[in-house]
């Protein structure tokens, strides 16, 4: 596997950066291609990421004729006249998000057998809310030998209240409801921009989804769905990561075509820390101060501060003047990067889901390993400001969600390279 080497301390990022389509949008969009029984779903602005390749393999296995032209970032998914009901372990176990194929399969076939996705390093990630919603729609759910089996002669519309506004459950249930008999209402639904993107594609495919982006989504079932054209929404987490990078390095970076509406909580916190944001016709310009000020952050479902920006924000807090707090309320185990950051001199006290960070200008480069996707980006950001050399290992996490991350930072002036790691370095 590769490693990234960052030589930090003097970097001041400058220039402009292009942002890809969102990983967290495109994965459910790919699952939605299973719902079309005729025509082609054409997706543009598709990010070139390992998670996308894995989801492509799963939907292809299930019966969609899919091609991915990486040069144009376009996927063409030819409708499966029929699709398979069985999503096997070898595909689902590789990626948590693959559970969102269950709603479309169940909706089309009246039956689904999907391997249990399991947890991951940031938490146990149960799927009880997804399954409870399917049951309310008339599905019988059983668990056997690591698989969840669902069957329903007629999936029917239902009134579903989610105990927590789960992104995945909202997406799965929305898709299940598209071909169900009657009307489904999802209350306390997730409101993330990726939910809106999915609803937009579903409607282009012939579904009748209203209210996405609010806490109540209403879906009227239709008889069949067809092909459509759709461009994947911009990745607000990638955009946010570059905002933090500019903020930490006294930078001046134009984030091309950034959508401030999607990054309100982050922009608000960075502004509190002394960062300037200028809305320009080509995007948002981010200007970092001489020294960031401390701030207190708590992660929440959208429109609260996103848990997917938590690690990157702790990197900014690590170099801010004064004491900051970070409270993680969405995932129970998302502070592993702080242990790695300690190796670089981070002053942090962790009490359960709360971290007290004392900012310093004395961070030193070190060898660190990515513990999850956003941790990998956060460690690289910290490497930009630490004195000396930082080596970041386990880049398989980074490749799940960032396309050409080091090239983009390099183009902004970072001293960074990606090289092959020796086997013995990786442990
Ligand atoms: C591919 C994708 O889009 N991933 C995003 C999605 O993940 P994902 O869809 O898995 O996240 P959820 O919103 O479902 O999970 C949020 C919380 O709810 C809990 N929960 C969820 C479902 C359930 O049935 N029961 C339950 O208890 C989870 O364990 C977690 O603690 O939203 C998360 C929260 O914004 C982001 O961090 C992920 O990047
Ligand atoms: C946690 C994330 O993704 P996933 O849900 O795919 O693990 C993320 O994008 O930060």
From TrEMBL:
UDP-N-acetyl-alpha-D-glucosamine binds at residues 96, 125-129, 308, 330. GO terms for molecular function: UDP-N-acetylglucosamine 1-carboxyvinyltransferase activity. Its EC number is 2.5.1.7. GO terms for cellular component: cytoplasm. Residues 10-409 form the Enolpyruvate transferase domain. Pathway: Cell wall biogenesis; peptidoglycan biosynthesis. Keywords: Cell cycle, Cell division, Cell shape, Cell wall biogenesis/degradation, Cytoplasm, Peptidoglycan synthesis, Pyruvate, Transferase. Cell wall formation. Adds enolpyruvyl to UDP-N-acetylglucosamine. This is UDP-N-acetylglucosamine 1-carboxyvinyltransferase. It comes from Lactococcus hircilactis. The gene is murA.
């Amino acid at each position: 596997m590769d490693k990234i080497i960052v030589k930090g301390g003097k970097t001041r990022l400058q220039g402009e950066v292009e942002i890809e389509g969102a990983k967290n949008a495109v994965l459910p969009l790919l699952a939605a291609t299973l719902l079309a029984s005729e025509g082609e779903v054409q997706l543009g602005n598709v990010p070139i990421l390992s998670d996308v390749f894995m989801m492509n393999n799963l939907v292809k296995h299930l019966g969609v004729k899919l091609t991915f032209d990486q040069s144009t970032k376009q996927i063409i998914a030819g409708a499966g006249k029929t699709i398979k009901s069985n999503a096997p372990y070898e595909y689902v176990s590789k990626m948590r998000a693959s559970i969102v194929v269950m709603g479309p399969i169940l909706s089309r076939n009246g039956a689904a057998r999907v391997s249990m996705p399991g947890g991951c390093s940031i938490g146990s990630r149960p799927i009880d809310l997804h399954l409870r919603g399917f049951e309310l729609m008339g599905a019988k759910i059983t668990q056997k030998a690591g698989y969840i089996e669902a069957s329903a002669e007629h999936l029917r519309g239902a009134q579903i209240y989610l105990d927590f506004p789960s992104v995945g459950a909202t997406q799965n249930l929305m898709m299940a409801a598209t071909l169900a008999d009657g009307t489904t209402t999802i209350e306390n639904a997730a409101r993330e921009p990726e939910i809106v993107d999915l609803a937009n594609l579903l409607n282009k495919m012939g579904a009748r989804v209203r209210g996405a982006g609010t806490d109540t989504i209403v879906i009227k079932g239709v008889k069949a769905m067809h092909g459509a054209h759709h461009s994947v929404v911009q990745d607000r987490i990638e955009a946010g990561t570059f905002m933090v990078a500019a903020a930490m390095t006294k930078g001046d970076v134009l984030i091309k075509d950034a959508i401030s509406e999607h990054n309100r909580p982050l922009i608000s916190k960075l502004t509190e820390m002394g960062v300037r944001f200028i809305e320009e016709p080509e995007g948002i310009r981010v200007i970092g101060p001489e020294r960031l000020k401390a701030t207190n952050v708590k992660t929440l479902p959208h429109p609260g501060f996103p848990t997917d920006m938590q690690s990157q924000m702790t990197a900014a807090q690590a170099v801010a003047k004064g004491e900051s707090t970070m409270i993680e309320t969405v995932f129970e185990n998302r502070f592993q990067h702080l242990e790695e950051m300690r190796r670089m001199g981070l002053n942090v006290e962790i009490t359960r889901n709360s971290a007290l960070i004392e900012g310093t200008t004395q961070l030193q480069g070190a060898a660190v390993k990515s513990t999850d996707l956003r941790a990998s980006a956060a460690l690289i950001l910290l490497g930009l400001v630490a004195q000396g050399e930082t080596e970041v290992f386990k880049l398989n996490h980074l490749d799940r969600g960032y396309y050409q991350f080091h090239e983009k930072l390099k183009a902004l002036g970072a001293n960074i390279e990606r090289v092959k790691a020796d086997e013995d370095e990786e442990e």
